[in-house]
Each structure stands twice: as C-alpha cells, then as structure tokens.
Specification:
Layout (H helix, E strand, L loop, with lengths): L7 E2 L2 E2 L7 H16 L3 E5 L5 H6 L7 E6 L2 H7 L7 H5 L7 E6 L14 E5 L7 H15 L3 E7 L23 H14 L2 E8 L13 E8 L1 H4 L14 E7 L6 H28 L41 E3 L2 E5 H5 L11 H8 L4 E2 L5 E5 L3 H5 L1
Parallel strand pairs: 3-4, 3-6, 4-5, 6-7
Antiparallel strand pairs: 1-2, 5-10, 7-9, 8-9, 11-12, 12-14, 13-14
C-alpha cells in the first residue's frame, strides 16, 4: 500500500510518490551501478526479479545473481532475464551470466563470495529475531562484498499514512532512524565496513522532521579488508538451489565475435569493389578508379599490383589499398583492420585472419580478402 500511488484509503488522502517508491529504490541502485561499475552483483530477496531485469542492461556486469526464498516466484519470473533476439543480433562486449538461486540471505553459500555489490532492498524487516541475528554474520562476515546496500522502512514516517502500524503483514519489525543507524553502525564496526545513510520518499511540507519514507545504508568495506579477498573455509559450500541460469551472448565468445567482424568486413569489401567498378566506367577510367569523397577511405586511387606484390605495413591512416590480380579484387587485411568497427574486435591482422578465414576467400599468402571483380550474374548480363 505504501509503495503504490493510491488516491484515497478509508476516506483519507494518502501521500503520492512520483515515481512510486519502489521505482525510486531501483533507480537508486541503478545509479550506484553506473557510478561504481561493479562486475559481480547479487540481490538478496530479489522477489519478482524486477531489479535484476533493470541491472542486466549494464555493460559492466559480468555476473548477476538473485536469491529468494520463494522458488515458485523465481520460476514464474525467470523469463524476464532470458536473452531476447536483440541480444544475439548485437552481443554484449563482456560475457554476462545471470543466475537465480532458491535460498535465504541467512544461509552461507560460497558462490556468493567475492562480489562487488550485494543489495538487500526492503529485506531485513521480513526477518525474525533469530534470522536477523544471523544476517550480519552471513552477509557481512561470510559473503563480505566490497559494497552492501540495505533499505528498510522508516517507522517515523508511518503516522503520515492512514491506519498503518506495519506496512506489510509479513514485516516482523520496522525501525525508526535511530534504531536502524545504531544497528548499522554496530554491524559496520564489527565487520570492518564504513556506512553512510540516505533515504528516498520525501515527506510532505511541514512534516520534514520524520525523515524519508525509506531509509538506506550504504556499507563499504574498509580498504585494508578489501585488499584481502575472502577465502571460504569450505570452498564447496553450496547450499542454494539453482533455479535458473543463463549466459548471454557476447563478443568474448568466438562465434559471436566472428559474426560481428564478418558483418563489418564483407559489406565493406563489396562496397569498395562497387567503387572500383564505378571508377572503371568513368571517362578515362583505367583498371581501377578513384574513390568518391564520401567513402571515408583514402582519396588515392585503387592501385593494380602484380600477384604477390603487397604494400608494406603502414599506420592506420595509411593502409594498403585494394588491388586487382587478374579477375580478382583484393582488399588487404591491414586495411580492413583499420575500419573503425573492426579494430576494437581484433587485436591484430592475425586475429582478423583467424576469425574470417573459414568464411571468406583469402589470397594465396593470406594477406587479403579476394572476391571476383564481376559476379557471375553480372557477366551474364
């Protein structure tokens, strides 16, 4: 009820948050990820996986994990985290694996060690006193990530809502600011973290003294502790049950990198050949013609070479030009490597050659891509 935007409850107008409070919390985590660029992120108590769905679009993340005690909800919502056709058409630069676990935030599982960020959004208030006592031992002491973000309701805000004692029937408690900050500072001190406090959901004018509707603690591991990676006492301590896992296509995987390179190389080769043929048709055109100004290539004309005679290696600004050998039109790999969208995909000419060799025809010495000067259907015409 608190997170929604309702016009009226029991005849009393309630506070409207715009955007809704749950979206503000997700945006808060999204902003943190954009700022700190974590590679490994876990959301404890991930629920319907909405936060994970938002975070999966961040290029920096390589491992994204959700943990929840409701296995049915995880299975029902796993489709939200599955790759779609666009993920295959335009693969990520870095490989990302998404995994959903059925488990509890108060259970140790060594697969959650070494994370850069663990989020606990509106989670701790659902823990009974026994589990709340275990929570710091597991999350701060065992998992020990570089950063932990915990949000929880601020009970001082509750009188502003109509007929609210606890905001959810499953909440075991709701702390005021002093209670939350005292707990957070004690935990941070015990496990060598620092903590900063923030919040979301501003109170209405005249009620500023109650603070934010949601209170947030941002915990950062102290530098000395962060320099020493956590080593599990039992490396194979796997308690969580894998409900769903998927690895997104990326340019780190050869088949997707190959497709990306070929999608750039092949059209460029044929575009250069078209310009060559246009040059031949121009008045005074010889074997090879000049490139027009809008091609982005050197304005020097294509040059004809004897078989096996190649231009020496040069800088990206001065790469070997396409050339003709008999009825073959050849584009040196060095020129293709210099293309703006090919260079980031290939370390050097050898890498480029290895990626395209089984999909295009190369010259006898492997230094250039060969295509026929005229296609067969052109010859028939």
């Amino acid at each position: 009820m608190v997170d929604g935007n309702f016009e009226e409850v029991l005849g009393k107008e309630v506070i409207k948050f715009n955007p809704p409070l749950y979206r503000q919390r997700y945006q808060y985590i999204k902003d943190l990820v954009e700022l700190h660029k974590p590679k490994k992120v876990a959301d404890l108590g991930c629920g319907d996986t909405s936060l994970l769905w938002i975070l999966k679009f961040h290029k920096c993340i390589e491992l994204l994990v959700g943990v929840d005690t409701d296995e049915d909800k995880l299975r029902w919502k796993e489709y939200k985290l599955s790759p779609v056709s666009g993920d295959y058409i335009k693969p990520r630069e870095l490989t990302m694996t998404v995994t959903l676990y059925h488990g509890s935030a108060v259970e140790r599982d060594s697969r959650l060690l070494g994370f850069d960020l663990i989020t606990c959004i509106e989670l701790i208030e659902h823990l009974d006193s026994k589990d709340l006592a275990k929570f710091p031992e597991v999350v701060f002491g065992f998992f020990s990530p570089a950063m932990i973000v915990i949000s929880t309701p601020n009970s001082e805000f509750n009188p502003l809502f109509p007929v609210v004692n606890l905001r959810d029937s499953d909440h075991k408690f709701e702390w005021n600011r002093l209670q939350f900050q005292t707990w957070a500072l004690d935990v941070a001190r015990l496990y060598s973290y620092s903590v900063e406090f923030s919040g979301l959901g501003k109170p209405p004018a005249g009620a500023e003294s109650v603070g934010y509707c949601t209170q947030i603690g941002i915990f950062r591991k102290n530098r000395a502790e962060a320099a020493e990676p956590r080593v599990p006492e039992q490396p194979s301590e796997h308690v969580y049950k894998v409900v769903y896992t998927v690895t997104y296509p990326s340019l780190q995987q050869r088949k997707y990198r190959q497709c990306a390179v070929l999608s750039e190389v092949i059209p460029e080769v044929y575009a250069m050949r078209r310009e060559h043929l246009r040059g031949r048709q121009q008045p005074g055109g010889a074997c090879c013609g000049d490139l027009p100004e809008d091609t982005g290539y050197s304005q020097a004309p294509f040059e004809c070479y004897e078989p096996g005679l190649l231009v020496e290696k040069g800088s990206p600004e001065k790469t070997p030009k396409p050339f003709c050998v008999g009825n073959k039109f050849c584009v040196p790999l060095e020129r293709l490597l210099a293309l703006p969208r090919v260079k980031p995909l290939c370390v050097n000419v050898e890498t480029l050659r290895a990626l395209i060799a089984d999909r295009v025809t190369l010259s006898s010495d492997g230094s250039a891509v060969e295509v026929a000067v005229h296609d067969e259907d052109e010859d028939e015409d």
